[in-house]
## 1
Amino acid sequence: MVSQTPISEAPQVEQEEVNRDLVKAVTSAIKKKSPQDLKKLVGQLHESTLADLLENLPAKKRNQFIELMGDDFNVEVYPELEEPVLAQIVEQMPNEQVVDVVRQLDSDDAVYVIEDLEEAEQTKILEQIPEVERAPLERSLEYPEDSAGRLMQAEFIAVPPFWSVGQTIDYMRETTDLPDQFSEIYVINPDFHLLGIVTLDRLLRTGRPIEVNQIMNSDLHLIEADLDQEEVARQFERYNLLSAPVVDQDQRLLGVTTVDDIVDVIQEEAEEDIHRLGGVGDEALTDTVFNITKSRFTWLMVNLFTAILASVVISFFDATINEKVALAVLMTVVASMGGNAATQTMTVAVRALATKELNPVNAVRIVSREGLVGLANGILFAIVTGLVTLVWFQSSGLALIMAAAMVFNMLVAGLSGILIPMVLERFKIDPAVASSVFVTTVTDVVGFFSFLGLAALFLV
């Protein structure tokens, strides 16, 4: 007979999402300055859920929330926060409290907490941390933002090659200062050069007298500390890694990058590409009105100038449009179809460039393919729009011009959608940011010029 747990004794299920009622209740507890009520409300929340809750609270309430929680506040929440929220919280905290938080976190998470502070503030905080703990943080901060050196954690287990399996196991049992979680042990020489890696499952399945150099894996995937995090993520994906050693220019072991950090990198890079394709930069939902306005203004201004350029092209044919009013109705169809087709191609191209799937080896084939796709769609939509124009305006000449302009602009759209990102990439300009402006300009200008130009030659 299967026993049943009484409802009153059933384990509580953690809340996975933040809802309006929870935010309202937490805000009320903060206003009443009631730590007891607050701890009842959030005591069972996972750190990621708690981070979501903090991000949904008004800015002025966040630090009050942390103060009321006191020692019961889980410091693992800080690495889960978005950068603008984290920066706002840390800036309002006394240095002594920041020091306490940093010392409780793994080195990679500690770096994330303080990396956006002013250099003077960073120095003040680091000076209050014991040298043994401070050294890896200072080393990580020396590397560029979004590099492997910033991602790595300095906590890892390294042993000499002549140690036996038994010595290694005893060392891990007796040493208290070990990483919270690990799956690999690194075998190094006296100069800290990595010789190989032993996985925990291999270690535990091997007899105690065997030396680790006999069971280590020498097929290493080393990550240079100054390597961009996007390339690091690509190596994890390519080689199905759970962790990877990070080394300096002399190939000395500095730290380790783990897959949980890489998941965050993949999400961050994908989100960044999507934002940049839309011309909104690196903004977050928690950014202020001022920061978002400033971020979007630049590319809106660029779009304004490109729109003016398209209007100038139209102005060249004002006499033509005056004589044939139908042209004003139809010309936007050509430009719009070209713009949408180019955006489809551009989106695929930008992502393929970011993931290195589009490279010199397959560039000609991919460009040719997109050109043929543009031509095929151009012919198909030329037939559709030509027939619509014929039925609508009862003009076979206008229908043929509409069809010809559609074919030409869709072909140009397909080619520009892939060639413009490739050219920008070649000149070290981020195609995710700049492509949409140039692609839209090309399809608008070509669309208006081809349609109105043909009309000026053959109709008016």
## 2
Amino acid sequence: MTGKRHSYRTRPLLILLFVSCFAGLLLGDPGPSLGTSPSPSWPLWDHFRHHFLQSDGRVIDRTDQDRSTSEGEAYTLFFSLVSGDRETFRKVLEWTRNNLAGGDLDRHLPAWIWGKRPDGSWGILDANPASDADCWMAYTLIEAGRIWKNPDYENQGRHLLSMIEKNETAFLPGYGWALLPGPWGFRLPDGTVRLNPSYLPPEILLAFDAVSPRSPWRQILETTLSHMGSIAPHGFVPDWIAVTKKGQVRPDPVTGPLGSYDAIRFYLWASLLPSRSSLRKRLLSHLSGMVRHLDRHHSPPLYANTLAGWTAGKGPPGFLAAILPLLRTRGEERHLKSLLHALAMMRHKGLYGTPPDYYDQVLALFGTGFLEGRFAFNAKGNLLLPTRPQP
């Protein structure tokens, strides 16, 4: 296998009222709350569950042959934790364990893709794990163990983290430590290794470093930062990069220098860091191309050529939602309100698009959920949640 992901693409999402952000609370020491929850309900999450989540915990990408992925399961675990939905969390984890990990997440990383086979049966279509999904799943389990005081979840997350470290991290000579997109399929015959920058949410790397300090998570983060000048020379992040056997960053041989559906997450992850974080400032300093584009057009492009610096097209609703936290970090309240209005116009029956696309809704849950104060991350990568009113 020479590569994978993302074939989720395009279509719209939801927007809700946003409340003023919790700027001061984004930083600070580890803690379990952000203050009082802005709303006891989360309409976008409720619509997402109704439309994309099967009763047994399978997340269905209805615009892509009704397939399921470890990414979808991992993101849904995270949003279940954010919403305090323990029953959905349990079901999603159980479906993932039984269908993607051979019944044992202590011994197997989950397979990337599950769906309908050519013979009409349903099952695993691609057994290679996806490291971004694996990281989100391990992180969410560890945080669920901490927040819900459930040692079983924490132990499960630590087991996953250990397997990720063993199978999906590597030292690349001349480049440094890296997170491989999966255990196999990304090392080319000439020694080139394909990497995906959006697979590296800095919040997760910081949290993993605290949980497993003898592992290379801090080095992976620092390696990425040290190469950002080569990764994003015009301030746009590509979907994929290639690292030569001598450690040089080059355009990916499969996708070229374009940034689009994968890369949009890089801007999102960087903007979710605490407002006083020096790491956030360092990352955002390399995203000047996207910032300039937003200043001129007030919405993100569909494509950016990271070597030439040109952009093309208008991003779908998920892109708009993903860029909201960046506008908030820059104090662009007028542009932010304009984008929120544009998103609201794309809402149809509680979701974005007709038909609504899974990936758009996920980006909206991250972007609008953050703006509404439903979650944040502290300086150590821990998840911060609002205090929920007691019944």
## 3
Amino acid sequence: MRDVSLFVDPDEFVGLVGESGLGKSTLAYAILRLLHGGRVIGGSVEVLGQNVYELDYNHLRKFRWETVSMVFQGAMNSLNPVLTVEQHIYETVRAHDESATLIQLRTRTDELLDMVEIDKRRAQNYPHQLSGGMKQRVVIALAIALNPKLVIMDEPTTALDVVVQRAILDRIGEIQRQRRFAVLFITHDLSLIEQVASRVSIMYAGSIVETTPVEKLLMPDVHHPYTLGLLNAIPELLEDNVNISSIPGHPPDITKLPPGCAFHPRCPYMKDSCRVSLPILKQYSGSWIACNRLSELEELLYGQ
């Protein structure tokens, strides 16, 4: 990643979107100081005024799950197969509060299962006795067990059918509004973000290329060419003639980025300066966009 600037306000639901392999999960791991085989060489991660990279081990351990928690990618495989649902919740709570009594743990388990709409009798089930959607809900329950201020969700509905996916998305939104925590929702599917988020950041090649309110995605407006490519790849299922336009080429290897704008080899609006000049985020019409042709995009796109 390079020059990533991202903020999530209290109680806000923010989407982080981009193709696979472009640094979204790496950013999430960096926030929680879970990078393995990588290191942070500059910048800071601040949550509630605390720089995460200045916390000692004990404070970092408390920070994780009490302040920021995460639903990991491939969440359905993150449950321990030899522990029941109840035991997962007990261990999570007791890791941060050893004084919690058995009655308190049982009450908390019932509350969490009710919150994610799972029958309380399922508390005695092992992961193999649950459906994919139920496993996903259990993992979400574990992420909110300690009432964190920010929950990072890394593609939490991947591998689920569209009906279950929509049900879980709706439930996440309801819980977020009830518990008033912030969400950073990572996905490669822009159409998902349109349903639940208030703001979206688009990532390409380890950098944020656009941050914009979601409502601006739903109307003709100036966007980064990569954002336009993602929008054009969403089929309009209610139209008579469904046209899907893919983005030509492939995402670059983040360790071997091209000079200048990393998107220029795939960009239909590229000019020579894009090959050498690295764009920076600039404010434009309520959005932040990193494009060397920002001042020309409106005319290029809409002839205005």
